[in-house]
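task queued by scheduler; priority normal; single chain, no ligands, no partner chains; default sampling; output format set to structure tokens
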Amino acid sequence: MSTNDRELHELLAILFQAHPWHGVQPGDDAPNILNAYIELVPTDTVKYELDKSSGHLRVDRPQRFSSFCPTLYGFIPQTFCGDLVGELCAERVNVQGIKGDGDPMDICVLTEKAFTHGDFFVRALPIGGMRMIDGTEADDKIIAVLESDVAYDHFKDINDCPKGLIDRLKHYFLSYKQLPNEAPRRVEIADVYDRAEAMEVIERSLRDYRAVYGAPEQRVDELRRLMNV
């Protein structure tokens, strides 16, 4: 990056808040250590979701039942569940026609700490994930631990997690969209995978993002080009 581009980038950072999905890096050491944007905390009785066009957190819907997300929940910035993520899912479960769900890569962050609301970033270390399929769409959930967390930081792989905790996560994601009197949704968790597989899933989502939205490091150049038109 040239000196002029660096100065423009720094000025924009001072003047404007970065978009949580597009304007924040996944981390200098991604995917080993990640920035994770948290939309939802375990005590939320309302499901919040990032409004992708504005970058603000919005109310998606009230939680209608007593099932609450058992962890911090959000997404990894500058990721996208597209062709590469869908292809990996299809390969692993041996089912054709699966595609990415078109959203950022979801992440569940384990921590002993209580947070009162979402809309913040944490540094998280991936330890595994759940290969969730919603209809014909790959909807992976990366499982990570909060960096330096007293209770969970020693978890290095999904096998370090108590089975009951994984079961709780499974129950939440298999049930939170299902309403009474509705036909059963075609949602399944086909696999719970380890850290190595999580690294592959994240790497693919980073590449999918660049395929759709371009290289983030080139945006200052593109802005300069558009300003000169």
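post-processing summary
- Residues 19-216 form a domain with the Inorganic Pyrophosphatase fold (CATH 3.90.80.10).
- DSSP finds five helices and ten strands in the chain.
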